[in-house]
Amino acid sequence: MSEVIEKVSIRITINGQSYRRKVEPRLLLVQFIREELGLTGTHVGCDVTYCGACTVLVDDKPTKSCTLLAVQADGCEILTVEGLEQDGELHPLQKAFSENHGLQCGYCTPGMLMSSMALLAEKPDPSPAEIRKGISGNLCRCTGYNNIIKSIQAAAREMAG
Amino acid sequence: MSWIGKSPERKEDQRLIRGRGLFVDDKQSYGLLHLHLVRSPYAHAQILSIDVAAAEALPGVICTLTGAEVKDLMPESFMELGPEPAASIRDYPLAVGKAIFQGEPVAAVVAETPALAADGGALIEVDYDMLDAVVTAEQALEDKDILHESAGTNQTWQGVYEYGEVDKAFAEAATVVAIDRLHFHRFASTPVENNAVVAEWLPHGDLNFFCNNSFVGFAQQLLAPALGISVDQMHIKTHDIGGSFGNKISNYTQMAIAALASRKTGGRSVKWVETRTEHLLSSGHGNERTFLDTEVALDKNGVITAVRSRHIDDCGAYPRYEPLGCVIWSQVLPATYGVRNFRIDFSQAVTNKCPAVPNRGYSRMQHLWFMERIIDICAHELDIPADEMRLKNYITEFPYTTPNGCVYDSGNYPAMLEKAKELIGWDDWKKKQADARGEGRLLGIGIGTTLDSGTNNFGQARIMNPHLPFSGNSEVATIRIDLQGSVIVTLGSGPSGQSHETTASQVVAEELGISPDLVRVRSGFDTGWNTFVGHSGSYASQFAVTGLSAVHGACEKLKAEMRRLAAFILEASEEDLEFGIGDEGPQLSVKGTDQAVNYWYMGNLVNNDNAVLAGELGDVTLNIRHVYRPPFTVPDTERKYGNLTLTYAAQLHIAVIEIDRAFGHPKILAYAAVDDCGTVINPKIVGGQVHGATAHGIGAAIMEIFQYDETGNLLTSSFSDYCPITSMNMPDVQYGSIQTPSPFSYNGAKGMGEGGGAPLHTVSAAIQDALYGEGVIVRESHHSANSVFALLRDSDESTGVQVETRQ
Amino acid sequence: MAILFEGEFEITRSREETFAFLADTQKFAPCLPTFESLEMEDDESATVKIKIGIGKIRGIATINLVLEESESPTRARYSGKGSVMGSAFNLIAGFDLEEINGGTLVKWSGELKMFGKLVALAGGLIKPIAKKDIKRLIDALQKALDPGPGGQAAG
After folding, report:
1. Of B206, B289, B605, C121, which is the most exposed, with the fewest CB atoms less than 10 Å away?
2. Where in chain A is the domain with CATH 3.10.20.30?
3. Nearest to B330 by CA among B99, B161, B128
4. ipTM score here?
5. Rg of chain B in Å (alpha carbons)
């Protein structure tokens, strides 16, 4: 508690950019992303890995960044919501969420998008049941999920060409 | 083209889908400090001492605050809305002398990082002397253990609502149904973003807040006197708010702690971000209501003629806003039914639980659930099908004046029932149900009809406390053509996901004959814009009426100025001008000619080049502020009579539920929701609100509950225990709508979004129907597998319902 | 959340000796399971530290232990008030002593009430853990009071 905590040096790649920082061992990955790097698109909504607002991709795996220490992500490649748009072009998931009213307040949206990314990478043509399972770790209080499911289906169609 | 009834791209989405919104916790600044709150583990305890020495000695800790200190710093405690004796309750943002609910803040630590602030908090030693906890309202009303000595009683409000000839109706009744006890449980909509604030109280007196309060018009009136500052010295801003659902109306108490902490640091910025456990423990729960000794009089046709009952609200530790809930339910006194005779004895009590706050469907939903239970229990006892029972009792003539003087503007409940039946496939499910029953399976079909009363008349506050200086309602919008000819709109509503930027731009586009993408609507709320009144905020299902009427009124004034200006520039008569878009952007043109003046020219003329203007145009600024006020009068507080809300959106839901006999698990097999909110401005947004409200209601009905033990421990204080509804539990909703335009709004729209708690009524009804023949009456609103299992297990016990047939 | 507990055990030691042990905070407190340290505030009260752990949640609980009743040689009763990790607990532990077969029958009873975060986080786990810890306390007392080899109650 009051003892001096030795900082640990880590290197993490986020959205293609490599960062080297010395951090306290107790620093959560989400705090690292938000507070150290100022990437505030990744949100915090609970303390128990339930809400998924903090979901990012760590080495392509959807991960709740509130339940991982920054030091545990040393050497990893991370994708956050800010990395979805490429060359000024929104990702099909981002477009589909907007077109299908898959977001209202937008607080859960970044985490929801990242879980959807992982889902579509694994299952490019998911059934509604698979979509529900894919986003079951992401809480949304505004939409009632129906439009989010539609958004993911629309993005899957778009990505299939 | 018309922009009303369309779903253009949402303006808000551009930033939100990129993760570029600006929520309170996203705000960073140089030298920002962080606040941590130390909370009482006890529900009820004297605070004997607080030792902050070790915390203050920790490197990185800037200062601490205790309740005693806060009491000295605040000129007065927060205003309580209730009348005496509740008005005597002392309400400070940190507990003073005594903690009265688990999680109540007792001390604060300010430090350089959030982690150091939490470390400091762990070093604060508080010595408590535990007292007995009062955990139910009925127990509280016995006044054995008094929570607030200054009030001398736990009862915070009591009044009788009596209309018509109740005793006569009971004397003449063909049947009287008595229900001993119904109970509506505690839950909240728990927005995914927690409460948060950044406060900066500068040494020269100005106080800046960046916060996520969703009713700033009200919060500033509570904060200013308590902090000893003028309203104008407080600069309050919001930007993106991650949901509120009413819950964030009450975070002004935490705003005050952050402000006082900033002052103690000499004016540095102090950020406070609530954790989820803190949110669930202490930031506000929806109110819990118990309905006792209910009696229902019916005529020989199954038409309800009178209801008498005793209702008790449990408002938790501090009444704050909550005594308003003792009146707000009466906006929907008869629900959707033509009952004319009522006697409701209503009281409210404080308990050692988290304070209650407004929550989506606030106070009306509890009453509507009660009325729907009455309908279904009577139908069950009299062996009348639930749909027929409703058709016998629905109000069918509009506008309809209720027994307490409210005016239902429009509606068509039988048409909604018909539509919902069609969507769900009623006849088919009825057949399947007969088959299921034949196999001994428990399959139920339930209907819930509900109202979402919107645009409240604050005069109803005087029914609760005649001394309150509130009545009517209002909202503000500004619109201007700036010096580059852009159309800029600001709103007083401070939305939290309801798409106000988008719908406001649709109204402006419609009025000016342009497109929504040419209208810039500023995000959030800012007292610095001068776009607020005391009623400004997002609550009580009203933006489509109050907010958009303000936008519409501002557009009309702007158009009048623009016509005068354009007539001067084009040397034409005002009648010959038309609004539209030309080659050089938005413009006014002379009908049938190629003569036109665009917005840039007009904006520049007024703001940069005004010497060429004629003297009589000296008052033209193209900068309009408009306040919309609904046509309300002050209710008769003695009779508790008057028009309490302007519009009545309606929802009708049908659910098909199968109950697992072994485990009690209720599985939703099909779900339909029909909505009527009058003229729809944006179908996508209305649909989104309907789905969202449906999810909250289903979550509350089958999963979510704030469960306290007998010593006042909250047992569901993390999301893992509270279990908000996820994609795995939310059914596909068959959604439909009808439109009965409101005669009371300029655009025919009715406020909507709260949804009236329809799924709670519907799920209770379906479970009742599923357990038909099991000797069970559904008397609770919470239907987790556990509680349904208990219903089945205890089915041989009394149902608490008695029927007396006289004719 | 409240946990009630009671039971009895028989020992060969005399009632006076048993009482002298149980009513002596300095002897009684070290029998608490996961005992760490004891600091006497005055004759009747002490600050006792014990380790508490439920799964990964671990911490040191500070208990203010007070000898509330002491009626030689029949009855001793402690009350304790503790806090750990933002949570609090209150406990009562009482001993009624009866002479039996030349030895002593110790009837023990108590109550543990928990408040706060730990209850919410680990509510379902606390009862079995508390029961186990109470058994360990009683076992430790029995062992300490046993005058045979290894007994520690000689003083």
Report:
1. B206
2. 8-83
3. B161
4. 0.97
5. 28
What class is the A92-160 domain? mainly alpha
Residues whose CB falls within 8 Å of the CB of residue A111, separated by 6 or more in sequence, listed in order:
A42, A43, A51, A52, A53, A54, A55, A138
Interface test with A, best of B17, B119, B501 (most A CBs within 10 A): B17
What's the pLDDT band for C51 if we cut at 50, 70, 90?
A: confident
Is B8 within a domain? no
| Confidence at residue B322, expressed as pLDDT on a 0 to 100 scale | 93
**Residue A15: CB atoms within 10 Å:** 16
Confidence of residue B75 (pLDDT cuts 50, 70, 90): very high
The angle that helices B386-393 and B413-424 make with each other, rounded to 10 degrees, is 160
B19 in a structural domain: no
Closest CA to B219 of B204, B189, B199, B243: B199
Q: How far apart are CA B347 and CA B509, in angstroms?
A: 48
Mutate to test the interface with C, among B123, B130, B708, B713 (most CBs of C within 10 A): B713
Residues A136, B726: C-beta atoms closer than 8 Å: yes
In whole angstroms, give the CA distance from residue B47 to residue C78: 22
Q: What is the largest CA-CA distance in chain C?
A: 48
Tell me, yes or no, whether B773 and B667 share the same domain. yes
Point out the domain boundary residue: B224, B247, B273.
Answer: B273
Instruction: State the DSSP code for B413.
Output: H
Q: What range does the domain containing B481 cover? A: 475-628
- Using DSSP's 3-state secondary structure scheme, residue C28 falls into helix
Amino acid residing at B278: E
- Cα separation, B243 vs B689, in Å, equals 12
Per CATH, is C2-145 categorized as 3.30.530.20?
yes
Q: Residue B313: CA atoms inside 13 Å, Cβ hemisphere, count? A: 34
Q: What tens digit of pLDDT does each residue of B208-261 get? A: 999 999 999 999 999 999 999 999 999 999 999 999 999 999 999 999 999 999
Q: Tens digits of per-residue pLDDT, A107-144?
A: 999 999 999 999 999 999 999 999 999 999 999 999 99
Tell whether B794 is covered by a domain. yes
**Is residue B728 within 8 angstroms of chain A, CB to CB?**
yes
Residue B260 lies in a domain: yes
Both B418 and B328 in one domain: the answer is: yes
User: Could you say which of B604, B628, B652 is where a domain stops?
Assistant: B628
Distance between CA atoms of residues B172 and B142, nearest Å: 35
Indicate the number of domains in chain B.
3
Which range is least confidently modeled, B80-94, B482-496, B698-712, C31-45? C31-45
Q: In angstroms, rounded to a whole number, what is the distance separating the alpha carbons of residues B347 and B326?
A: 7
φ, ψ for residue B511, nearest 5 deg: -70, -40
Please calculate the CA angle A152-A154-A158 and round it to the nearest 5 degrees.
Answer: 115
Which CATH number is correct for A8-83, 2.40.50.100, 3.30.70.120, 3.10.20.30, 3.30.365.10? 3.10.20.30
Domain with CATH 1.10.150.120 in chain A: 92-160
- What are the structural domain ranges in chain C? 2-145
Round to whole Å and give the CA distance between A151 and A138.
Answer: 15
Interface residues of B toward C, Cβ cutoff 8 Å, are 38-39, 41-43, 102, 122, 128, 130, 277, 709-718, 721
Order of strands, edge to edge, in the sheet holding B666-676?
A: B442-456, B645-659, B666-676, B734-737
B194–A141 C-beta distance less than 8 A: no
> What predicted TM-score, i.e. pTM, was given to this entire model?
0.95
- DSSP string spanning A60-76? TEEEETTSSBGGGGTT-
Chain A neighbours, 3+ Cβ pairs < 8 A:
B
CB within 8 Å of chain A, chain B residues 385-404: none
Three-class SS of residue B346?
A: strand
